[in-house]
Design a protein that fits this description.
By secondary structure, the protein is α/β, with parallel strands linked by helices. Helices cover about 35% and strands about 25% of the residues.
């Protein structure tokens, strides 16, 4: 999609609002502690942060849903949360955003995953994670499959955001792939390399560069510029396409943009659209959300990838797990 093709973007954007998307994956609560630093602690060589505020956002797969909600009112989520204060806050934030949480199971024995980032002078000082990984029980997997079967007919696309925390298991992945094929639904995946799940036959898979190398079983190497001369990366792409049999493979490359493999076409490189980078938190969530929405709206693989590239370029210019608005995405076609 060319930068001046605003008419095509307008047509796709008009379809965004009618698309119905289900997000499946690991739910988290993102906490941001904002403050100022004026001195170093006398107790240890670390900054003292004077707290000025706190913010809470849906994280993990819930952040994918939050990104989608900027473009369509029809967003549902499936995942697992604890019956604790963090879980209650997370579900409250999702409900407040108008995201359907009927597919969320609540486990009283589970501690809701919470990631706390301390930000001072527009820089992350430290991140504190509270989590205990716990794979779905057989009963929870059964309930998730039943929920999926009862819901899938009403969706245009399903996004899987696997953060490797236990909700996305191979039995659930297999059922998602089968159901999506049977019902003719778009199925996109943001994979986690250490779960080594099989995603055979999905519509699109979107790993980042390191995840792609790990998933392909290739030792990570330094990026090569120009990207299309990076033989190691091209080989990783070939291996993953053979392994997953996905229609689309989109590898995100940070400052080098994205590399698209689609159909029989040669790999296509899209340079980054980011003008400045403040925080990469959640940029991958933005990319998979917009890629999926574009495909659901009828975009070609190249068009959907370009939308995702532009959206993630906007997201990294914001602090925190930020979302991108339709107006901001539209403006990117006027400015570039």
């Amino acid at each position: 999609m060319q930068a001046d093709n605003s008419a095509r973007f307008a047509a796709l954007a008009a379809a965004f609002a009618t698309r119905r998307i289900l997000v499946v994956g690991d739910l988290m609560l993102d906490e941001f502690i904002w403050g100022n630093v004026s001195r170093i602690s006398p107790e240890a060589p670390v900054p003292i942060v004077n707290v000025t505020g706190e913010s809470y956002y849906p994280g993990g797969a819930a952040n994918v849903a939050r990104n989608l909600k900027e473009f369509t009112a029809h967003v549902s989520i499936m995942g697992l949360a604890g019956k604790d204060a963090a879980g209650e806050l997370l579900l409250g934030l999702l409900a407040e955003a108008g995201i359907d949480t009927a597919g969320v199971q609540c486990d009283p024995a589970l501690e809701t995953i919470r990631k706390t980032r301390v930000i001072a002078r527009n820089q992350q000082v430290v991140r504190v994670d509270r989590e205990r990984k716990s794979a779905l029980t057989g009963a929870e997997t059964g309930r998730a499959i039943e929920q999926l079967d009862s819901m899938i007919a009403r969706f245009d696309a399903i996004v899987v955001a696997d953060y490797g925390k236990g909700f996305v298991t191979q039995p659930l992945a297999d059922h998602l792939c089968r159901s999506a094929r049977q019902h003719g639904k778009i199925l996109t995946v943001d994979p986690h390399p250490h779960t080594s799940l099989n995603w055979s036959g999905v519509t699109a898979v979107k790993p980042n560069r390191l995840e792609a190398f790990i998933a392909a079983g290739v030792p990570p190497s330094e990026p090569v510029n120009p990207v299309l001369a990076d033989e190691a990366l091209l080989e990783v792409g070939r291996r993953l396409r053979q392994r997953w049999q996905a229609e689309i493979l989109l590898i995100t490359l940070g400052e080098y943009g994205m590399l698209l493999f689609s159909g029989d076409a040669s790999p296509s490189h899209m340079p980054t659209r980011a003008k400045e980078v403040f925080d990469v938190s959640g940029a991958g969530d933005t990319a998979i959300a917009v890629l999926t929405l574009g495909l659901a709206a009828g975009a070609t693989a190249a068009e959907a990838a370009e939308l995702a590239n532009r959206a993630s370029g906007i997201a990294v210019g914001k602090l925190g797990t930020a979302t991108v608005t339709l107006a901001e995405l539209q403006a990117s076609f006027r400015s570039q």
